[in-house]
Amino acid sequence: MGRLVVALALILASCGGGTTPEPPEEAAEAATTSPAPTTSPSGPAAETTSTAASPAETTPTTSAVTTSTSVESTSDTTPAEETDSVSLVSSEGYTFPAPPEFPEGRISTQLRHDLNAFFDILEHERRFAHMELLSLTNHDDIRVAWVLTDILRFANSLELIELIGARLQEMLGAEGIAGDPIDLWKRATNLLIAWDLPAFPDYPKFKKRIFVLVEQGWEPFFNDPEATIDWRWVSWGGVFIDNRPLGATFPCPRGCIPSLDDPVVTPASEGDWYPDDRVVFGVTINGESRAYPKHQMEIHEMVNDTLGGRRIGMPYCTLCGSAQAYFTDGVPEGIEVPVLRTSGLLSRSNKVMYDLNTSSVFDTFTGEAVSGPLREAGIRLEQATVVSSTWGAWKEAHPDTTILAEDGGLGRSYPFDPLRGRDDQGPIFPVGDVDTRLGVQDLVVGVELQDGRTIAFSREAALAVIDSGGEVTAEGVRLIKDGDGLRAIAVSDGSEIPSHQAFWFAWSQFRPDTRLWSSPG
Could you tell me if 383 and 324 are in contact, meaning their C-beta atoms sit under 8 angstroms apart? Predict the structure, then answer.
């Protein structure tokens, strides 16, 4: 069959060896609304999706929560180890096959030789070499599946997909990954994550060689040998890095999800353009409140702002249903205030954010620096509470609130539903196995205590109890209504405990030891 030439325009364009279509005028909007790119049928198009909950039948639920309307205080929690949350169940509701035994230690000299031969040609000739790829697939070390799925993510040749797919079925078993070739990358990666298949030593070095061809801006992320990133979970989100300077208003030339920096705001009295029943992400710092409309956050996914005299960075992972706010001005003296940006990468379906000044990667869910100079400095950003509420209820609770300007200060328009329900049926990127105590996209309010323990509260169940006159408490935490959303306070003194809302699958996979509040029924 000779040599299989790369059909991946993205790699060629990144390296000056070809062209890729010009991004539309509104790059972020296009990235978040197109169903799938023509350059990568093996995976989804973009990092962002809608946050609508999936149908109840998506995942079997062994929920520890009931929606009791008892007015009694509710303080029961269920620890992860007392449930079947460790069973290998997918987000679609099927059970993964049992994992095989895995090899340990270094890969063979021949496999290393074949990996280098394949990547040398990829780097120098900008093509996937067929014979060298066949050599890779002929090895019995199952850990090479991580490399094959990385290649598969950027493949747009059906021939290439079928070649890799046939070998992956032999290595992993047809039961776990059989189906439409278009979805092969997602199915195979889901299985590898669920199995917790270990990577071989130096796997990140080979991963870097293909990812940096696609986006050179990702190279610094790979250059920290002590990084605590789990590179097995990292995948491409369908867009490129946002590396524009702070305050930039121009779009990324190749297409990125552009941060909104220091947005123009107006008083609530000038916010009538936004319907009262639509969602805002409300933040209050030092008595100053601001509403960030959901549809604008779906376009930008990141805001750098000043509120209540504090500098904050606010990522919104649409895939995880999670808007968070971090104090970026709390870093030690001598460290420049981080400027948060969207990288275009995902970690188990969660957006990967980074600091523009140092190229340090942060765990978006925890605020911990996991690579680069900020990791070396031990930086973990402090969180502020984000309340998910309707605009009408938020401005009633906070009459002095501000709201982002209708045009975002950019002179542009924002559609109210830019994502058009793209993940209504569940996660569109690999997440592996899920915790079945709640439905995959059930909304929870998550809290981390000072001692590191974490608790999740079902939003629906908690609101039902509070609206009936009851209290929702657990582990010294009480939930109270703010607008028609929820925030957490300490039972002891009423002080605020940082909290935010997220899909259950996201909270539980990044907080695997989380306790789940249950309403006694």
Answer: yes
